[in-house]
């Protein structure tokens, strides 16, 4: 979508302060975003307004200041640390005689550069096309409605309408292919459930150190860098845990404040690894000044994708950058691990982290022997459908004794689907 020459681009950045929190953004983080997109920020224009201008987002005086900065710096693009409407983007481009992108456009550009797998490229293209669909303008002004000769006279189709039709067709095609990817991922997850293999998903703010931690724990070589959105494509590795056995560790895309909604929708197939996980390991940059705000932003996105009910272990990473902070595991009033302080770079605290993960997963597993009556056939079918049955024995009176093993969350969901309460399930003592 965004073709860029090899020598990079020069950009003028624009950041305004608003009294309302809905428009609040971090100018330092935006500069890091721009550098992650391989663009050189030549200057930053700042200011404040009570509310955005409907036509240009900025006022007339600020417009002139930006126009002068573009001329003086010979900039190729103006980047706004805000969300612009399609009409505001068009008006600003006409005024500045150069390209104008908002915060969402910059994030989409970074994703387009970082996507490596076929699935990742499809997800990025879908987000770009849906973003672009509201920003189409007629580039072929010399083409009026097409008219032919005799028998072909009529309104015809404008170039703009043709572009929109082609765009809709491409979006439908990508959605069909992503549905196929989603079904394939579902098959993989069902296979892991049948093998009684829990999944732990690393989540967190972008550049919190998830990939570095992933590499340390699994001895892998996933790309990790000190830049925003270094990881786009999810990576899964098998990991042996003490006292538990094998589990699957998933490295996922990082979150950011005001993550574009279209991007969340496009990456839903990838984020389902997070939704279906047995445990979320929330990796936090402990040395970040906006640590608490970043935690809140991640929790907001998790709630948006429906993963807010999955058990969470917070991991405060990068303690090697802090003075007087020792690796440790903090517990709640019931003695459960809730927070671990580690360094993925030095490896400090990783043994304690694995012990905490193992402890939470063991506690989250239901292993029961049940006696079901013939009238509880639906419940029996659901256990088999979930791949939770370890063994079964038929009794002479028609009852069935099932040995089941599954995650606590899946157990609760299954009982709700069967319309059965905990008291109605006849539990037996395991041999």
From TrEMBL:
Keywords: Coiled coil, Cytoplasm, GTP-binding, Magnesium, Metal-binding, Nucleotide-binding. GO terms for molecular function: GTP binding; GTPase activity; guanosine tetraphosphate binding; metal ion binding; ribosome binding. It comes from the Bacteria. Residues 198-365 form the Hflx-type G domain. Mg(2+) binds at residues 211, 231. Its cofactor is Mg(2+). GTPase that associates with the 50S ribosomal subunit and may have a role during protein synthesis or ribosome biogenesis. Belongs to the TRAFAC class OBG-HflX-like GTPase superfamily. HflX GTPase family. GO terms for cellular component: cytoplasm. NCBIfam families: GTP_HflX (TIGR03156), PRK11058.1 (NF008280). GTP binds at residues 204-211, 229-233, 251-254, 317-320. The gene is hflX. It is found in: Cytoplasm. HAMAP family: GTPase_HflX. InterPro entries: EFG_III/V, G_HFLX_dom, GTP-bd, GTP-bd_M, GTPase_HflX, GTPase_HflX_N, GTPase_HflX_N_sf, HflX_C. Monomer. Associates with the 50S ribosomal subunit. This is GTPase HflX. Residues 164-191 form a coiled coil. It holds the Pfam family GTP-bdg_M.
């Amino acid at each position: 979508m965004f073709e860029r020459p090899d020598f990079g681009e020069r950009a003028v950045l624009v950041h305004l302060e608003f009294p309302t929190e809905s428009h609040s953004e971090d100018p330092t983080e935006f500069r890091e975003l721009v550098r992650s997109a391989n663009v050189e920020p030549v200057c930053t224009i700042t200011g404040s307004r009570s509310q955005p201008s409907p036509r240009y987002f900025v006022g007339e005086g600020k417009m002139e200041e930006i126009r002068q900065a573009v001329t003086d710096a010979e900039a190729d693009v103006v980047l706004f640390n805000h969300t612009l409407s399609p009409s505001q983007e068009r008006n600003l481009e006409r005024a500045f005689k150069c390209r104008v992108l908002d915060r969402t456009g910059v994030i989409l550009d970074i994703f387009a550069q970082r996507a490596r797998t076929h699935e990742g490229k499809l997800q990025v293209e879908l987000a770009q096309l849906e973003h672009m669909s509201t920003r189409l303008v007629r580039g072929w002004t010399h083409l009026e409605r097409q008219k032919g000769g005799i028998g072909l006279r009529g309104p015809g189709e404008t170039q703009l309408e043709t572009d929109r039709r082609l765009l809709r067709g491409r979006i439908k095609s990508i959605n069909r292919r992503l549905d196929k990817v989603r079904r394939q991922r579902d098959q993989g997850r069902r296979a892991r459930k049948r093998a009684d293999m829990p999944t732990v998903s690393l989540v967190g703010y972008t550049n919190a150190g998830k990939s570095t931690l992933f590499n340390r724990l699994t001895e892998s070589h996933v790309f990790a860098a000190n830049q925003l959105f270094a990881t786009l494509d999810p990576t899964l590795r098998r990991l042996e845990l003490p006292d538990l056995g094998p589990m699957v560790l998933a490295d996922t895309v990082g979150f950011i404040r005001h993550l574009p909604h279209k991007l969340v929708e496009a990456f839903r197939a990838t984020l389902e690894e997070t939704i279906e996980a047995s445990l979320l390991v929330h990796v936090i940059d402990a040395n970040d000044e906006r640590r608490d705000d970043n935690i809140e932003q991640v929790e907001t996105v998790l709630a948006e994708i429906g993963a807010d009910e999955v058990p969470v272990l917070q991991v405060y990473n990068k303690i090697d950058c802090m003075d007087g902070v020792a690796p440790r595991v903090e517990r709640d009033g019931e003695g459960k691990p809730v927070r671990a302080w580690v360094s993925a770079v030095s490896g400090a605290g990783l043994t304690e982290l694995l012990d905490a993960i193992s402890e939470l997963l063991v506690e989250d597993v239901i292993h029961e022997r049940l006696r079901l009556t013939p009238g509880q056939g639906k419940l029996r079918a659901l256990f088999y459908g979930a791949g939770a049955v370890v063994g079964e024995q038929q009794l002479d009176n028609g009852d069935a004794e099932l040995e089941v093993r599954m995650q606590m969350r899946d157990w609760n969901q299954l009982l709700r689907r069967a319309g059965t309460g905990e008291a109605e399930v006849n539990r037996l003592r395991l041999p």
